[in-house]
């Protein structure tokens, strides 16, 4: 019985190479020498061989021998032993090899790889009914026809696959998930206490693009987890302030008290906040707040109403809020107050992400839901010797951890070790008076709650989680003891992510918790980092009133996900132009493909040339995406594909030749797919089968009807032109310019060709129509302006001609001071005599003007313009 590889079952010959010649001692292919002169034994018929092969299987050695004295080759088949022997004599060598797998054991003997192939060919020949008796004899055919030729697999270019810029090494590393194609990915989510701004969009759109590329292009099975930080010092402070402001506004205080409190709040804000702020940008933002509050207070003093307005309280929220918090913050004990604020802003965040077409996380976690897991996690770190309790709080011992042979603190940013300012900021605004730390660099895993702060039970007393521990616990609870990817904004590297790494490694007693750390770059505005503390942020909602989600995503795609990007109208303008390029390309190609119908023209040299350019750009796009998802280079090559295709379309049209529809279809479908991968075009995420063959394709349903209308209109226009029916042509224009755009149809008349029909978003067409009308109006206004200027110049020239020659220079007192009887200047405005050269030029001007003056007088019946006769 033969195995599927053609060897006896139980004795399968296993080559120890990839392709025919792996592990060969020579890099050259060991071709069969003198193959036409070699002889094969002819004393066994194929039927006999097949009968023999059905007997019990035994190992089949393949032997090659050479000797100095002779050169011969023979292959013999021993029926009982199933032995195939190959021998050849040649000078200066002697070797033999057998490769056999029997009962799970490998036996290796030197052998030429081609012999195994020869054996397989012989077996295949026997099974096909070939006759060995004629092989190698005079009556046999050419051996090259009887033995199947060797096949060489094409050489594959080296493709190392995806590389990602790893913050651990600060360079691009080959991406190797722990478990095949499955990827465990955790991203630090927002701290929800205020509106999301474009700095947040920078991070979450960037990671959405990376996630889509890894899932939809590289086919990784990504488990994407993101957290919501709903327990944090900023949230606690903001929740208290909001509650106190609302209570203050509803309390019905007298005008005198409101004014006194507002003035005291401003004084405190100026003394404690503005005066102590060293950052000029932050101080400028605070000065702006101070100015607005003073103006609001002056308006309130003049107003008749005693109760402060909602707008007044909103303007005064920071100074007055801090003022009230210092007095009454400690009285707030209801945890519901601290839950209300983050729930509101979390929902707002999700709405913003949906508006930006950012895919939701596969798993969303909230800190408030994992407090029991957090306390258990901290207990184990204490048990492992890397944390300690002090006055109801628990701190991580950074020095002990760093001194351990198995660990290293601040792996991501080692140069930040000892940066107390960054560490203090990471501990939170309510943790400045922390006591009990052994070292200044130690950070809080658990914070004892002070009056006016939410609290949960723990082995160390009532308290709340520290910031850094939250992500370690939630990632572990959902994804296990090791992550493939951890992502976040670049500003989180230290101390947040470095502290996450330290406490997780301390918990698991390992030296590697995350394999790849990805950090998105900053988004700046006017060169400054966009942040709430600087008051220079643009909310996502504000941005979406100016630009579409697609345009914002294109802006990020046109730049590296990990570099700093300055948000400005100029940068957005580039994205808008790219969008228009894509849009017009797709509309043009769809119209050409539709017009071509089911034609299958022969491929021309132009078609093949474009195809080759397209394939070359596709390869560059693949290489760019492998290069740490370099979307900027990928988009540059997409632009090249569009440019080459547009030139091709124009050249074919100029030659009155058809652009190949199959080629256009291939290119446009690829670009559509890439735009879906990048999230620029929405993916179809409906569940199950669609109803009917084309129910999901609106264009295929509508276009035949619109095309019929367009064709009919074209016939009417043609007839109207022949009979010069201007009113009918105007009706045709109204259909194109007014009726169809309201239905989402753009109709483009083309001289000598059928009209182009393009389905476009109705709102977009309305904007285009408004822009066209505005441009026409601006053109009309400009035309009127130029017409007026020409008329004014003509009138000015005529007025100048009416001036008597004797008065021509006398009015120019800024240039001349004395004149002769004829009115010619003799001295300049400084009293200096006019030079002869200048006087000559003035004489010429005088004579020219005098001639025009007399000409005008002649036109008026020889009456001088001043009423005198000539």
Q: Would you write up a description of this structure?
A:
Helix 5 crosses helix 10 (335-355) and helix 14 packs across helix 15 (493-508). The protein has five domains: 1-150, no CATH class; 165-232 and 349-541, HUPs (Rossmann fold, 3-Layer(aba) Sandwich); 569-677, Isoleucyl-tRNA Synthetase, Domain 1 (Orthogonal Bundle); 698-760, no CATH class; 803-859, no CATH class. The strands form eight sheets. It has a five-stranded parallel β-sheet, sandwiched between helices. It has a four-stranded antiparallel β-sheet with strand order 11-12-13-14. A three-stranded mixed β-sheet has the order 1-3-2, with helices on one face. It has 25 helices and 23 strands. It has 870 residues and is of the alpha/beta class. Pfam families: tRNA-synt_1e (PF01406). Its EC number is 6.1.1.16. Residues 66-83, 817-836 have a biased composition (Basic and acidic residues). This is Cysteine--tRNA ligase, cytoplasmic. It is an enzyme of class 6 (ligase).
Brief characterization of the structure:
The chain is of the alpha/beta class.
**Rg, Å, rounded:** 43 Å
Query: What count of helical segments does DSSP give?
Result: 25
Strand content: 5-15%
The separation of the N and C termini measures 133 Å
Query: Biggest sheet: strands side by side, in what order?
Result: 10-9-8-15-16
Approximate helicity band: 40-55%
CATH class of the largest domain: Alpha Beta
Q: Quaternary status of these chains?
A: single chain
- Beta strand count: 23
Question: How many domain units?
Answer: 5
Report the mean per-residue pLDDT as an integer. 82
Low-pLDDT segments, ≥5 res? 1-50, 52-111, 689-696
Coarse morphology: extended
The CATH fourth-level homologous superfamily of the largest domain: HUPs
CATH level-3 fold name of the largest domain? Rossmann fold
Q: Which secondary-structure class do the elements indicate?
A: alpha/beta
CATH hierarchy: architecture of the largest domain = 3-Layer(aba) Sandwich
Q: How is the main sheet built?
A: 5 strands, parallel
GO biological process, one term: cysteinyl-tRNA aminoacylation
Enzyme class: ligase
Protein name: Cysteine--tRNA ligase, cytoplasmic
Keywords: Aminoacyl-tRNA synthetase, ATP-binding, Coiled coil, Ligase, Metal-binding, Nucleotide-binding, Protein biosynthesis, Zinc
